[in-house]
Amino acid sequence: MVWFDSWAAVLRILLVGAASYTTLVLILRLSGKRTLGQLNVFDFVVTVALGSTLATIFLSTDVSWSEGITALALLAALQLLVAWISARWPRMRGVFTAEPALLLAGGRIRHEALHRNRLTESELRQAVRMQGTGDLSQVEAVVLETNGTFSVITSSKYGDGSALRDIRGIADLEHGGRED
Q1: pTM of the entire structure?
Q2: By CB atoms within 10 Å of each CB, which of 4, 13, 70, 80 scores lowest?
Q3: Number of helical H runs and strand E runs in the chain
């Protein structure tokens, strides 16, 4: 029946759903802040998989609560393993996350970097404006971070540039913002 199957099915959703939700909250608390922080691509995939698994536990009578919780715990454990590998072996980080991209250097737009990251000049300018700056020449660098956010560093805040050392193309700042 479309509108109502049985009270047993509704009761199962209430009981299994509440238990699954509570368990997922506990798993996320144990897995740490990384799972809940700003998401890179890998984190996003894990988050979607967690949501899909939770929905399956709620609605599918073919999946037992213990099977579903095992799947949730496995996803959280894989997330922790990836975080541990990325922290222990920085070269492996690129396997799981994208590199930050330098979109503007020394006030000059790096068109090749925009193209490679499928962004427009308009989106870059919007990011700069959102930081309260109206003059690109006063911006030393704009970085597209691994989680998709923009970091806008003005000339007055650039300092020694040490926070940018791991970004490909940063040497362009020392050479007048040339294209890569």
Answers
A1: 0.63
A2: 4
A3: 6, 4
